[in-house]
Amino acid sequence: MFSVRRRGVARLAAATVVSGLVAAGAIAVAGPATADDGSTNGGGVAATLGPLAESGDIAITVKNSKGEEETHTYKGGLFSLEVNGGGSLKAYCIDLFTPTEPGVKYKEVGWDESTLHNNADAGKIRWILQNSYPQVDDLTALATKADVKGGLTKEEAATATQAAIWHFSDKITAVPADAEAKQLAAFLVEKAKKAEDLAEPPATLGVSKGSLAGKAGTRIGPTKVSTNASTATISLAADAPAGVKVVDKDGKAVTSAKDGDELYLDVPAGTPDGSTKVSLQANTKVNVGRAFASTTQKRKQTLILAGSSETTSKAEFQATWAKQGPVPAVDFKENCAEGGVDVTVSNKGDEDWVFELGGVKRTIGAGKSETVTVPVAEDAAYKYTITGPNGFEKVIEGVLDCKTATPGPKPSETPAPSETPATTTGGTAGGSTGSTTGGGDLAETGSSNATPMIAGIAVALVAIGGGAMFFLRKKKAAGQ
Question: I need a labelling partner for 460 at 20 to 30 A (CA). Which of 3, 168, 176, 222 fits?
Fold first, then answer.
């Protein structure tokens, strides 16, 4: 669904207490989340969100700050996404109380980098996806299995599937307005509770390391390929020095790779200090159950894949080499369990490398590697640039999106023109509608009138953290 209630002020206040100076640091370095083309970090599929393909009304019941139940109606169902490079996807929402809209760019991510990272019911969500629409496109058979006497339309099947998913992703009561959809949703929830949890599906395409380093005259690497495609095509950058080539573990030049293959860069002795990039591309279908996170600076709702045509998936890695001195490599990955970003820094040279990360100078000895966790507040954008010798530069950026939003009490303000008051009845596409059975307003479309309060808290955080030193927490230290 497109328009949803903002996350609660209570949650924001809690984040302020827990995050403290870390949040202020994150605000200070916030920047664009990713490149405008929606490219992914580490590889995979990038796509742009389209409209709801099939949907219907779903009643959502939650408790407000007074413990009173409130019921509102949302449009929920199946999203469409267009893949960068070709192909299309279908997905459901797994983050009800966070907004999104057509045109938002998304990237494929692992469950550990998404709102599913600590959800014990993630496997049940995937079971629903595998056993309902659109994976089960025979609606007559689906209706018979769920004992839905009136049969099912695509809209009813999609609405029911979304409602069942919200039961496990957002831990709320979600009941479709349509009788047939209501019956299917209840069937899916009960069956999923008893079914064996399904594991996270593998990625479409990725590499274990996006940054390699070494000396000329050696094989630099390896990085390991992971893909659900039969093969991925390998392309060396056009500006790569003469004689440089991609090879396998036996030193044989390769132009394609399979899942599990290890790749190296063979750099001839005498090659001037420099670097180059290697691209991988595969045409494949994205596995049902893969998570998709937005790449915008402001967080949007997380999606989960329900169906895929053949799509284009890409990944790349960079290799740097030098005759002497430090030779750096930098990789990063969001760590939802620790609430930050793991930055792995390696030095494959013969001298110490001194660099700066988050305003703190660090030293990595020759032949050493270590990973530090940079704390980042939930929903905060982050951006760090690490530089090194011979023009080395690595930009680390994104938005930490690890938790589903929760509804909260409404500030006593008049809704903005784009918002729908709680007394509104009837439905609008992508909007919230309906009545309340308790005090306050849960559902509003478009903007949020909590914005002034959020802005005030943000200013306060900056003021509190302005004089504090940004800190890093060392996670591990080991040679690679």
Answer: 3
